[in-house]
User: What shape does this take?
Amino acid sequence: MEMNIALLPGDGIGPEVIAQAVKVVKAVGKKFGHTIHFEEAPVGATAIDLIGDPYPDSTHDVCLRADAVLFGAIGDPKYDNDPKAKVRPEQGLLRMRQKLGLFANVRPTFTFPSLIHKSPLKIERVEGVDFVFFRELTGGVYFGEPRGRNEQGTKAFDTNVYSKEEITRLARMGFEAAQKRRKLLTCVDKANVLATSRLWRETVQELAPEYPDVKVEYEFVDAVAMRLIQWPKAYDVLITENLFGDILTDEASVISGSMGLMPSASLGTVNKLFEPIHGSYPQAAGKDIANPLATVLSAAMMFDYAFGLKAEAQAITDVVNKSLAEGVVTEDIAEGGKAYKTSEVGDWLAANV
Amino acid sequence: MEMNIALLPGDGIGPEVIAQAVKVVKAVGKKFGHTIHFEEAPVGATAIDLIGDPYPDSTHDVCLRADAVLFGAIGDPKYDNDPKAKVRPEQGLLRMRQKLGLFANVRPTFTFPSLIHKSPLKIERVEGVDFVFFRELTGGVYFGEPRGRNEQGTKAFDTNVYSKEEITRLARMGFEAAQKRRKLLTCVDKANVLATSRLWRETVQELAPEYPDVKVEYEFVDAVAMRLIQWPKAYDVLITENLFGDILTDEASVISGSMGLMPSASLGTVNKLFEPIHGSYPQAAGKDIANPLATVLSAAMMFDYAFGLKAEAQAITDVVNKSLAEGVVTEDIAEGGKAYKTSEVGDWLAANV
Ligand SMILES: CC(C)[C@H](C(=O)O)[C@@H](O)C(=O)O
Ligand SMILES: CC(C)[C@H](C(=O)O)[C@@H](O)C(=O)O
Assistant: This one.
């Protein structure tokens, strides 16, 4: 197969971890006989510094030309804590999601047996956890209008808005995923307070009869925030709106003890983007110590979700498991064993794929 | 002192746990020489069934007449999962908060050594946890207008709105609490996305110089959702808006392993309400098995926050600790030991105060 992959390394440790994923993707391409083209483009603070825009048109063009986007991370401390900053790296991220139509953020939570002891939760609560969030990513309060201030600047407002259509396309992805998994779908909302949540619940209730093999549960976001920690194994597929998804997927990410390894996909009808869930981790940037596994596993998701190539995805998952078993890992998970450099882990993975 | 206390037992186990708190409050009154008058009024599903309104005017009048309100719980499954229900118990709760001006929800999280092993978290993460949330309770997306649907019903919207004034009064409570505690204030927002959050951050930044002894940190809500589970001991006082507070305080409630014991206060300029954080738990209603300790500890908060009577509050905390030490507890925390009835625990506490 011929594949065009856009590389958006972004800020902080982004470039370093993307570089390792590229090594692994190339090795997989060689092994399975694919021709893979890469095209790189700036995003985030890096793009602000270069071009004055966190998601420049030129970067958007690169993404449009590509079959899939591999994304690193964005965010730079110099833009934090300044509520009046005019351009923010995050705006680039949001604009990118919207312009590429990436309406579904897929965030799996699963465990690596060799890392489970790092979980803040007791092992018996975590062992075997396996659920996936489908977070709506291009709607809700992130994009709703009006938003801003009154004239005197003494009042601020945001608008949360959802259409039945937006809810339907996200919910269908959740239903379909549930059909291929343990057949349980949890719709997370705040229908006891929010008009948008009532539309979510109503829409999901209307769709449910089309998926008779899927059991649907409705839970309030505050209850899920508790139960995710108490009984994470109770969940299979969860669907939710943008802001709830932002909070809950991050909460979920600490459960397995392997946050530094968790990949994600952001899917649209046409475009597809893959990225580690960890951030730009500026303290570690440039030191060749960042853990590249989440990005490498995001590349695995890419082979599966963007190209339907499951064997290639599995080959990556396998080599990651092998690196964990043999202790070829970065310092964050080395635990007294030898700590390999980011680039060394990438080289090892590429050589062993 | 002469005190007028409004009792709003509400739904489910509400009446049973309130009854125990009343026993304890009476015993404290007797011991310390206070004259305490109680006036009871319906709220929630109970009030809908009786009067057709989850927060009737007659109940509001009872609250206005009182120096403090002791609240049980509201919510009845017959009103759940019906997105089109016209009257909902929760509406009563929200109307009550607004009409009584209860703008600050105070939710402490602390541990009971004898229960800490019930935490889903590892003991070393939880031991000594001691933080308190100040959740804004009468603003934000819970009350913002416009909210509703478009004409065809295919689009729904909610409005999040905050004024500088609303933020200021809540933030000042947080600053003052921090001054009396470990002097760390965390402002939780989503300032990288929301206009309201930027006003929160800006307002808190403006107030900070008035409290030079308090260290202020600003964290995004998604980061706090993680760090609460990873490093709960890192927090002291947290302030946040209504919806974030709803989610995070519930998440926080599972940390200590003593959710069934956690009290709360909802404070206004004039009115003050105290309630357990657990819900109406309809499955247990009428069985005399519900744990009354959260309501009893809410009564302790009442003596402290509503009347400034710290010795009385301490007397209640002490007798609760004694009941835990001597195993005079309900089945949820009996763990193989004798399980006492709700009413028996109440009698014991009142007798031993
Ligand atoms: C950086 C921020 C705007 C973003 C979001 O809130 O969506 C991030 O938290 C995420 O989840 O990808
Ligand atoms: C019942 C519901 C409306 C309420 C809220 O969201 O405020 C509850 O979750 C709470 O936290 O007291």
Summary: The pocket of 3-isopropylmalic acid (ligand 1) is lined by residues A 90, 93, 246; B 192-193, 222 (CB under 6 Å). The longest strand of chain A covers residues 2-10.
